[in-house]
Amino acid sequence: MATPAAPVRASAAASQTTVLPRRERRGLVKFMRNRAAVFGAALVLLIVVMAVFAPWLSHYDPVQASFMTVRQAPSAAHWFGTDELGRDVLSRLLWGARASLLAGVVSVCIAVAIGVPLGLLAGYFGKLVDGAISRIADALLSIPFLILAIALAAFLGPSLTNAMAAIGISAMPRFVRLTRGQAITVKAEDYVEGARAIGLGHARIIVRYILPNVLPPIIVQASLTIATAIIAEASLSFLGLGQLPPSPSWGSMLNTAKDFVSQAPWMSIFPGIAIFLAVLGFNLLGDGLRDALDPRES
Amino acid sequence: MLRIIANRVLVAIPTLILVSMLIFGLQKLLPGDPVTAMAGEDQDPQLIASLRVKYHLDEPVPTQYALWVRDVVRGDLGASLRTDVPVTSLIAQKLPVTLQLAAMAMIFAIGIGIPAGVISAASRGGALDYGANVFALSGMSIPNFWLGIMLIFIVSVRWHLLPSSGYVSPTEDFWLSIKTMLMPAFVLGASLGAQLMRHTRSAMLSVLRTDYIRTARAKGLLRGTVVVKHAFRNALVPIVTVLALLFGELLAGAVLTEQVFTIPGFGKLIVDAVFNRDYAVVQGVVLVTALCFIVVNLCADVLYVLLNPRLRRS
Amino acid sequence: MRRMLIAAALALGAGAAMAQTGQTIRIGLQDDIGSLDPARSVQLVDRIVFASLCNALVDITPDQKIVPMLATSWTTSADGKTLTFKLRKGVKFQNDEPFNAAAVKANLDRDRTLQTSNRKSELASVDHVDVIDDYTVAIVLKQPDAALLATLTDRAGMMLAPKTLADPAGVAAHPVCSGPYKFVQRVQNDRVVLEKFAGYWDADKYPIQRVVFLPIPDSTVRLANLRSGSLDMLERLAPSDVASAKSDTNFRFAPVSGFGYYYVTFNIGNGKRSNAVLKDERVRQAFELAIDRDAINQVIGAGIFAPANQAVPKSSPYYNASLPMSHRDIAKAKALLKAAGHEHVDIEFTYPNNTVSSQIVQMMQAMVSEAGFNLKLRPTDYATELNAAHSGDFEAMYLGWSGRVDPDGNLHQFNTCSGNLNYAHYCNPEVDRLLDAARVKLTTAERKTDYEAASKLLADDDPIVYVYNQPWPFELSKKVQGFTPYPDGLVRLRGVSIKG
Questions:
Q1: Which of A76-85, A127-136, B168-177, B213-222 has the lowest mean pLDDT?
Q2: Burial tier of A202 (Cβ tally within 10 Å: 0-12, 13-18, 19+)
Q3: For position C221, what pLDDT does the model report?
Q4: I need a surface site. Which of A25, A231, A236, B299 has the fewest CB within 10 A?
């Protein structure tokens, strides 16, 4: 953890090739050797493909109701069956991947975009700034995550965008805490003191020295938080606070499906499996990244 | 040591105040008039007017906040706008329910998670470790409300083995109470058990690498004794602190589990209150939850210090 | 040995006797019960509890005739402004207080004056209440009110023990009425428990000893509980479960068509969101012609969502049989839209996001699109919907009304210019005149003429498109004997017993 950022950057600039610097290359090799991590990456890729290519992969309109084909069991025409309005479950699943993936990624982006700068400021400046920011983070953390998300989503009104904002804000304190802890550690390093000594401004130091060293654990945490965010979006939609019908989202599909569990169990089974695979993928990916980027792991 | 506790308590107070302001402000910003919801489908305009007066809804927000704080300090958390039941009785009625669910879930989590974590760490790198890790990750990745729905369908609707909903107090009928809570507790505990397993595994692993463990092995002690007597006891420290963190996850998970299994607990109370714009209940319950959280974390910190003699001296 | 056998036999006998007298009925409800104070209550499920807990002055029969309950007879003065009731003698409240005219006055005054009373507008026509003697009470009105008697069958006419009235929080926490079952316990979101009141004036007609109400909002779980034996009956079976319920011989499916209805209303004059499109009644008529109520009934309603074309239910003597039910006619709808000057129309459609409403709205969206309506769906939760309705934050809205016995309750507040449930802000002075007149007339025949004329005008103006009559589908275990469903959706336990 003591390798400073500056020298690595210098060597990267000097080599001027597309070859990765040694540390990153070591990480990548370690990652590829980890079968579980690769499996996770494959799952994530599958979900991304589902989301991006949904319009071309699905045979039916995910939104158009068809009252002649209501609640049909899986068959050759409808591989995953149809739902209570006659819509093809598989098509809705594919389009629902968009909502879930978007929810996961955007929420985490919001959390990172707010949390990391705040954490950097708190860790670097300390004292009053740290006190204020940490108290706010603690306050947010002492309300259970899902409850905060529910309250926020109810405040903003049910919609996918608002659910993403709610989840992002609820997840933000974790990044504040994480970044703050890392920033404090890095700040104590000699080269940072040296940079201060030669008169570099605060902003420059934070961006050039502290941030790059703080990034690896943030990336790991981000990947794991995407998994949490996907489940959170599904939970909010399940409660009626997220993506609203008729737009498909795995969580809202489960919300309707639970009323038909006896007559049409396929409506519940497949969206659940989809959520499971997406979350598993990101968890495995996050784990793999952590193992790859952590120099202590032997 | 006392200084640590005092310090933590002092820090907790502004946090609590911030939480109360946060949740109060959030409620006030909720779209929709709580009074409209209270007036039901009849929407009697006279009633709406008198309700606004009764709940001080036309006064400025800071005044409303001050009035609320004054009541809270006196022990009056208000009453449910929907049913007129005092919030304190609601909490008294429902907290034990969620605590029972949480306790049973913890039993599942600890019963599955810790042994799995220990075994996994002990057989590090082997097939058992790999399998257990996959199992744990799967447990963490399954959405617990989906697991609940599937279990209700299979166990209650198809096989008629366990009741699908409701709550029976243990004082009323102990075994029926356990039976009714079994599925929800399992659903809630599964995800927690998975996380606990991973934390136990990593805690055990870092302990097993230490010098005194190697000394113990070198001395010729049996592998089992080493693992259980020495390693595990020392791994307890981080495990206990993680349990405190998981308490928060428990409460969040309880929200969904109680919704799926129609359990009249704390979680369901909050969700229903938010949907019904029952702001008195939301404020009171979130405040109490935050308080519990802070207390639990405080206990965990104290426990951590107690268990770790090295910290005690500093 | 013999003594043991005798003891065992006695125990068994006592046990059997206990089983007979220890009859408990467990009823599954759709929503959690709100306030148990009749003056404050706003939900249907509260009234289901009140039906067993409390008595009102009068009650209704399944065919909507008003019959005595706590009042044995009543007369109206010639000018219609005084309603005099003769009260039943020998009735006690559940705390052994005697029931008399003073109690009636105390309750009615409370309903009218309590700060948070929800019954004020129901009793708006009441000027004051006079105690004539112990068993005669006179209600003096400001103007004649034909709907008052029907109102007194509901919460406004329910009588609580006068000694308990001083403490409003106490009333909700532990209501003391004069009904066949007294309050035992209430756990919010979990159950309400009632127990037989031995001193009830008609006690021997109520075999059941204990009533437990269990709110279970998830209809699948509710039905699962009934099937597994944890419930004896449930209300509001989901339409998607009707087919399997009908064919299940272990249970009895007992639906009844109710007074309530689900409807679509348009923002005609409520604030900024009203526009020229919605103000034109040809657009609204086109909308009505584009929906197929029978298809909704078949596909989603399992045959129990009886199509409705007016606010008054078919079973009511005020039903206008000559009003035609519109059937789907896309060509005519398109023609009307064109006459109004549009080929395509975009409308935002607000609705409550529960399963059944969601399905119906999406079906409607598909149906009306063929006529040129492009509906943008906006689901909300119930509280937000009510707020949006009030503040005019909607274009078209789909919602329900649980229905009242008297047609006035289904019409006046919705269609008069200043009616507080007139979310559309529709205003037709002729309709106002007819509905106001019908309120103060005293015979069914006179009122019927007014209501028929009003319903014709309303059908032309179409501020409200009625979709279907709210049914009350009860599902009971075969063990439950003697239950009759009433069109108000309430559970009356007179004569109901549990076999075995």
A1: B213-222
A2: exposed
A3: 84
A4: A25
